[in-house]
Design a protein that fits this description.
Number of strands: 11
Strand order of the largest sheet: 9-1-10-11
Order of helices and strands: HHHHEEHEHEHHEHHEHEHEHHEHHEE
Radius of gyration: 21 Å
Oligomer: single chain
Distance between the termini: 48 Å
Length: about 400
């Protein structure tokens, strides 16, 4: 791989600026914001793939991570009216959505008692009844029922509203959530940080500084979180670089982020249906530049349900080392937005096969990237006999 990067320097058609960036990558030096913008505007896809894959293989070799998780979505009814959102329903149309009670959510969790999932991913709309007391009670109930299940829950958008309604500070609110059982936080709600775009597509939600501050506080409490960026709508390349720069600065400060997930804007069933979606080439360019720019993030993740299996496989050569999880069919966020995968569920066997097809090494991880199972040597039974989590250990309930 080093030889491939070195070959860039013998390309007489490659701009000096791109050769300078390649030199920095080879020497583990950070590129600047202007250099990041230059990559978006000028770098060929092949060049970006070589550099991003070099970084990916220097850090992770051929390892590709996934986990076995399921989603819990308390409601899709929401006070906010984000123009890009296909998932939520306004209160005046709440009959089109769902609002689950605490008991109903616990029954959903119990359906997985005999399956070796390691994580429950909780996210949903914002409503007054889903308040501080509701979520602390939910986290406590989950931990009482299944102590080892990792609770990755809610975004700063939800926490900002919850804490404001409860009249508690971010510090006090996050402390209560962690004490109740919160283990980590997903990366959603970031959208685009720059107010020029954020105010247009996500007005009324927490702003960039508030989003970053809630993550900072969680990191200070010793917990980890992820970060996202919604791209491919009305933002420009400068907005993307600004977004990643803010994340990179906070990561320098706290070292609490573990994964960055670029999220492709999908234009189905929302107020931005007139905005064309980004091409697969642009998706791969964005993954690669993310890997090059975010030098202090350990992992770059691609959500296979959102971009489709084929693009997800290609992304593994453009800086991505994580494909998220088996997902089950418990989330409607992807399909309602017009995602490639209409029924986002994949067995462990199929996900392992998908990774091996592109000569990568599948490793099941837990949420914090501890290895659960190395699937490089695992042989599954015949397709006709395989059902779900065959021959895998069942998590013991307490």
């Amino acid at each position: 791989m080093t030889q491939q990067v070195s070959s860039l320097f013998s390309d007489n058609n490659l701009a000096v600026e791109l050769k300078d960036i390649a030199t920095k990558v080879l020497n583990n030096q950070r590129i600047t914001a202007p250099e990041g913008l230059y990559l978006f505007n000028n770098a060929p896809l092949g060049y970006l793939g070589i550099l991003a894959n070099y970084i990916r293989e220097q850090r992770h070799g051929s390892t590709t991570y996934f986990n076995r998780n399921f989603h819990l979505e308390p409601t899709n009814v929401c006070l906010y009216t984000c123009t890009f959102c296909s998932y939520s329903r306004l209160i005046k149309k709440r009959e089109e959505g769902w609002e689950y009670t605490l008991d109903e959510l616990l029954e959903m969790i119990k359906k997985y008692d005999d399956e070796p999932v390691t994580e429950v991913h909780i996210v949903g709309g914002v409503l007054p009844q889903y308040d501080l007391e509701f979520y602390t009670n939910l986290y406590k109930a989950i931990k009482k029922h299944r102590p080892e299940l990792h609770v990755k829950a809610l975004t700063p958008v939800e926490y900002h509203y919850i804490f404001k309604k409860a009249k508690v500070s971010y510090e006090e609110g996050m402390k209560q959530m962690v004490e109740a059982g919160l283990d980590s936080m997903p990366g959603g709600g970031a959208e685009i940080f720059h107010p020029e775009i954020r105010d247009k597509i996500a007005g009324g939600k927490c702003d960039a500084d508030q989003w970053l501050d809630i993550h900072r506080i969680l990191h200070q409490l010793g917990k980890r979180s992820n970060a996202t960026m919604l791209y491919g709508h009305i933002e420009n390349f400068q907005h993307r670089v600004d977004h990643m720069e803010r994340l990179r600065r906070l990561q320098d400060e706290t070292k609490g982020f573990q994964t960055f997930i670029p999220l492709k804007f999908r234009n189905k069933n929302n107020e931005m249906a007139h905005v064309p979606e980004s091409s697969v080439i642009e998706d791969l360019r964005n993954y690669a530049i993310s890997r090059i720019y975010l030098d202090n993030f350990d992992h770059i993740k691609a959500y296979w349900p959102m971009i489709g299996k084929a693009t997800a496989q290609m992304s593994l050569s453009f800086g991505v080392d994580d494909l998220d999880g088996t997902i089950d069919d418990t989330t409607k966020i992807y399909s309602m937005a017009g995602a490639e995968e209409k029924n986002p569920a994949m067995s462990t066997k199929d996900l392992v096969k998908m990774i091996k097809q592109v000569n990568r090494s599948p490793i099941e991880r837990d949420t914090l990237y501890n290895v659960v199972t190395d699937y490089n040597e695992v042989e599954f039974e015949d397709d006709n006999e395989f059902k779900g989590y065959l021959n895998l250990p069942v998590v013991q309930q307490k």
